């Protein structure tokens, strides 16, 4: 998905064989995205191949926490310069964009707006 100058890649549950197909396809250059939800809940045994992560090269990564998530994947992504957010660590994750920037707010970091006290 493209919104203004920002790109978002939603991978769902693709497996490594599909990652390989995508990185070898004519539209391989269109994989590069500012934000990506990590394939298959971050399971390194079934997805998140190095070649695919390099092709996408996201700045922001969202992981849906489940029993297969690998801490090694989070470290690999952070070494590539990505900011990694996980629903298991951060709760709900909200992305807001005006087409130029992407703002990330997590449930753990969110604070309700302060309301003036009236008498």
UniProtKB/TrEMBL annotation:
Signal peptide segment: none
Highest taxon above the source species: Bacteria
Stored PANTHER family: DNA INTERNALIZATION/COMPETENCE PROTEIN COMEC/REC2, RECOMBINATION PROTEIN 2
Protein name: DNA internalization-related competence protein ComEC/Rec2
Naturally occurring in which organism (per UniProt): Paenibacillus baimaensis
Source species taxonomy: Bacteria, Bacillati, Bacillota, Bacilli, Bacillales
């Amino acid at each position: 998905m493209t919104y203004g100058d920002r790109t978002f890649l939603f991978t769902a549950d693709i497996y490594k064989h599909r990652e390989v197909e995508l990185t070898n396809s004519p539209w391989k250059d269109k994989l590069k995205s500012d934000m990506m939800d990590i394939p298959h809940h971050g399971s390194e045994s079934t997805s998140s191949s190095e070649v695919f992560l390099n092709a996408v090269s996201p700045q922001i990564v969202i992981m849906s926490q489940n029993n297969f998530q690998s801490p090694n994947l989070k470290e690999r992504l952070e070494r590539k310069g990505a900011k990694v957010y996980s629903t298991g660590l951060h709760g709900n994750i909200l992305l807001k964009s005006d087409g130029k920037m992407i703002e990330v707010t997590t449930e753990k970091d969110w604070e309700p707006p302060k309301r003036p006290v009236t008498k």
